[in-house]
Design goal:
It contains two helices and 15 strands. The chain is mainly β. It has a single domain, classed as L,D-transpeptidase catalytic domain-like (Beta Barrel). The strands form five sheets. A five-stranded mixed β-sheet has the order 3-2-1-15-6, covered by helices on one side. Strands 7-12-11 form a three-stranded antiparallel β-sheet. Strands 8-9-10 form a three-stranded mixed β-sheet, with helices on one face. Strand 13 and strand 14 form a beta hairpin. It is globular, with a radius of gyration of 19 Å. About 40% of the residues are buried.
């Protein structure tokens, strides 16, 4: 009996290790084991959240000290866990991208259920707001907020971004490619464009957008996760869920992973 208890204790300890280290190592563990209270399936629509689409991406924007899955992005495909990655989400503070321009905003990663924005997946993307900074493999999902690669790898696992979801660049490509794979079987192609920043005409914005293989999918309600089958958009068969593993008192219960 003591031996059995020891085995069970070791198993439980392993299941609750951090899902991804700051150096980008991905540890493939059961996808809900690090979430406070056990599982996403305790909450309403989360009972079937893996089946909302062919590809489901769950982003926990909690701080690492608040939630074992904090600052992570988890990918599911066809209802099965694929990988969990370390990220950097919005700093949740006021930021001023350019000290010479009187423009500030709250750098937050919005919570809710989202579809990838129509025709807004990229190989190459340079930010207009942030003076042409590179955002490789950008995948936009709400307004100017995207999942993308970053050179600022020392800040991964900390919420310091301007609102986007930063990742190791090779991992951002993996995630974007999972999303692209959830479209039709048609081949994709690139649409190249170059423009100048509206804030500084000396800054060139080079962009290479991925086109093709989108399908008609029902719109999803940001706050409830319900599909509106009367309204469709061209996108990929993917749903992106952003929530927190802690500090949920101001969020809808469906977006609290505790």
């Amino acid at each position: 009996m003591k031996k059995l208890k020891l085995i069970l204790l070791l198993f439980i300890s392993f299941a609750f290790v951090n899902s991804a280290s700051a150096d980008g190592e991905v540890i493939e563990i059961p996808p809900t084991s690090g979430l406070k209270g056990g599982a996403l399936t305790d909450h309403g629509l989360f009972k079937n959240y893996r089946k909302l689409a062919e590809v489901v991406i769950v982003i926990d924007k909690s701080k690492r000290v608040e939630s074992k899955s904090g600052q992570s992005l988890t990918v599911f495909k066809n209802g099965q866990f694929v990988k969990r990655y370390t990220i950097s989400s919005g700093a949740e503070t006021i930021k001023q991208p350019n000290p010479d321009i009187d423009y500030t905003y709250l750098a937050t990663t919005p919570t809710g259920y989202f579809r990838p924005a129509s025709s807004r997946a990229y190989e190459v993307y340079h930010s207009n707001t942030w003076g042409g900074v590179s955002m490789p493999y950008a995948l936009f999902f709400v307004g100017g907020i995207a999942i993308h690669g970053t050179k600022d790898i020392n800040n991964l696992a900390n919420n310091v971004s301007g609102g986007c979801v930063r990742m190791f660049t090779d991992q951002a490509k993996e995630v974007r490619d999972y999303v692209l794979s959830s479209g039709s079987s048609n081949p994709t192609y690139l649409v190249d464009a170059t423009t100048t920043s509206k804030y500084d005409e000396s800054v060139l914005l080079i962009r290479s957008r991925v086109a093709g293989n989108m399908v008609s999918v029902p719109r999803i309600d940001r706050y409830t996760g319900e599909f509106n089958y009367n309204k469709t958009i061209k996108s990929w068969d993917t749903v992106i869920i952003v929530g927190k593993g802690s500090g949920c008192n101001k969020l809808p219960s469906e977006l609290c992973f505790k």
